[in-house]
Amino acid sequence: MVRLILLTGVSIIAVHASTAMAQATGTDVGADDRLSEIVVTADRNERSLQDVPISISAFSAQALEKSNVTEAKDYLQFAPNIVFTEDGATGPRSIDVAIRGVGNIKSSDLVTTSSAIGYYIDELNVGAVANGTINPQMLDVERIEVLRGPQGTYFGRNSLGGAVSINTVRPKDRFEAEVSGSYGSFDTWDFRGILNVPLAEGLYVRGAYLHSESGGVVKNVNPNGAPDSGYVDNTARFALRAEPGSGLTIDASLSYTRENAGLDDTVPSGVIDNDTKQTLGNANLMPISQGLGFYPENQRLVNHNAPEYNRNRFLIANMRVKYEGELVDLSSVTGYLYSRNSRLFDQDNISADIFNRVVKGHTKSYSQELRIASKPGSSFKWTFGGLAARDYLEQFSNVYVGSARTYTDPLTGVTTRYLPDRFPDGFPLNQRNRTSKVNSYAVFGEGVYRLGRVSFTLGARYTRDKVQATQFGVLASNVPLPDAGASSSFNDFSPRLVVNYDVNDDVHLYTSVSSGYKAGGVDINRSVVRAFKPEKLWSYEAGFKTQLLDRRLRVNGALYYLDWKNIQVVSAFLADPNDISSSTQLTLNASKATSKGAELEVQALPMRGLQLGLNAGYLDAKFGAFPDAVVFGGGQFDLTGKRVPKSPKWNLSGNAEYGFDLTSSADAYVRAEAVYRSSLEGNLDATAAPLQGLAPFPYLSPSYTVVNVRAGLNAGPISAQVFVENLFKKDYFSGTYDHFGLAGIRLKPHPRLWGLRLTWKTN
């Protein structure tokens, strides 16, 4: 019924569009047919993208809308040297991001305590505790900035590789309303609404709501399990802005997201990994297809008996206060984040009830940041600030025995035993209950001195982190282990030096040296306590930013070299090879790695109505001395000189868009996009696969090229868009999901998708 109402409303809007008045196409082209200025807040000040000496990719609201961006992976694919894998660590929307090769390094779908990439929504750090990197649905977003390289001074907390900053639209002093609906492949549809109301002089409110559903790509042929990988998601946000006068501005917001999904949208590869073979004590295990086949022939069907589910909840409360005084500006950012996730999935990956896995967890994060800054206009500008934050993570993970110990193949009649009868139903094979608490304090400052066309920037951040970890209620061989706890403290000083030279108003050159830091921690497994060191990274970068041909051509680029030490590598193994319930997770420190590469971003307006874009990244990231890497089921391997996971040599994207007038009151556009990524290893298991004599598939994610096409119509308050993504139905996967299972390592297919979106908004 809801879908019928949506489609009826969409039809009415479409009829009304024929007589509506004209509206801008929403491109990043100004009224004078030149490239519009892009304003960013990478250094906590509103400045033109071209004036900031940092390698940044920025996406405006119009660009996000035209590319049908609904989540992080949709825009990250267009940023040079930003790579993600869909690893399923915390559900079907889970992605693992690396910038210039720097990210979280782990085996399979293990969860890390801290992230190497900073994630921010309206200046609030929402990724400090990686119980699942928040991958928010795009709702009422004004701008997204992706910053490459360590961002220690302003973003600080665990922004070792870079930062992703999402800025939502703030309440405005005028009435605005927007209604949008879409329908597409696999019975996927959404409805969103936005309302902005000025309540009084200096007091405005804004609300936004998004409901999205999908029938899911993957279907389950087993009536006892979850029917499909479909989802039902809801997100709501309420924001208030108060401007009482005397230079004071208060922005407060509250957002809540509720995600409910069925089974993971993955299919089996038919390749049994070494972890499964070792755990079950059978090196000759053969994959079970149950007549469905394996990827790539089978990209739609699974046979799971478990009632699988994935549920996530996010609550974010944020308050920003700014006071613009006569002598200085004061800013405060206060935030609270609560997230909760629970999931049940069929660990054996077949119809027999042999193994199931339950994961539950929640996080709480509090933070308070204060900044004081000089007034603009002088040759010397400065900013000082401080941060206090507390993050808490609680996670429960249990792989347990089901009711079956054997499986009989219906095609051959052969029965295979996987577990001895001595294991009772519900026996915990792999149990991990843990908490992690991080108290973080930091002070930072930066000064910029301009001397003619040259400016010098010197900044630094001092951080102190105290990490506490506990293990509780864990069984090993069905015997309770004693609870355990430990703590450790870490200090860091991360400086930054930048020299910027303005050749003229349109050509800027810069070079920088900066440092980044990721806190250490404590592993507690089977009552064994082991601390691991913090990561440290030094970045050396030189870049240029240019606007040429009367602002019809923009070319930005950078060269960089990263020196990355004490890399935290998360892996797991059987502490006792004869005890399948002895799985242990630990974090090792690889000695070092280096990453070098280049980035180029080009935007051009060669003729009226035509826009062209090109983004290119070259990346060479390799481990230094790492002779004792531990991987799932494969023992120790020397990965010295091997490529760091999530480090493709090349990543390229391009787009072409042509806009034209249909009548005096309507215009339209057509747009094509292409994305290329060379092969990569998604995790540590993949990096070590050749050393174990394993075939490349599915450990090595092969190179791929994906083409998307879009077209849109704008007529007054009405706009319509149609799109086809993965036009040529390229079979590809970005990484591997959970490795353990009797049908093989899991992969996420990417079929062709089509859709239609209709939008009404006030002028």
TrEMBL record:
Q: Which PROSITE patterns does this chain map to?
A: TONB_DEPENDENT_REC_3
What residue stretches are annotated with the TonB-dependent receptor plug domain? 49-163
Entry's Pfam families? Plug, TonB_dep_Rec_b-barrel
UniProt xrefs under InterPro entries: Beta-barrel_TonB (IPR000531), Beta-barrel_TonB_sf (IPR036942), Plug_dom (IPR012910), TonB-dep_rcpt-like (IPR039426)
Determine if Protease is one of this entry's keywords: no
How does the record classify its membrane topology?
Answer: Multi-pass membrane protein
CC terms in the record's Gene Ontology section: cell outer membrane
Coarse class of the protein's main subcellular location: membrane
Residue ranges annotated for the TonB-dependent receptor-like beta-barrel domain, each copy included:
284-727
Q: Where located?
A: Cell outer membrane
Record protein name field: TonB-dependent receptor
Give the signal peptide, or none.
Answer: 1-22
Which GO biological process entries does UniProt record here? iron ion transport
Q: Which PANTHER family does UniProt cross-reference here?
A: FERRICHROME IRON RECEPTOR-RELATED, TONB-DEPENDENT OUTER MEMBRANE RECEPTOR
The entry's family comment says: Belongs to the TonB-dependent receptor family.
- Per the record's keyword annotation, is Iron included, yes or no? yes
User: Which keywords appear in this protein's UniProt record, sorted alphabetically?
Assistant: Cell outer membrane, Ion transport, Iron, Iron transport, Membrane, Receptor, Signal, TonB box, Transmembrane, Transmembrane beta strand, Transport
Organism in which the protein naturally occurs: Rhizorhabdus wittichii (strain DSM 6014 / CCUG 31198 / JCM 15750 / NBRC 105917 / EY 4224 / RW1)
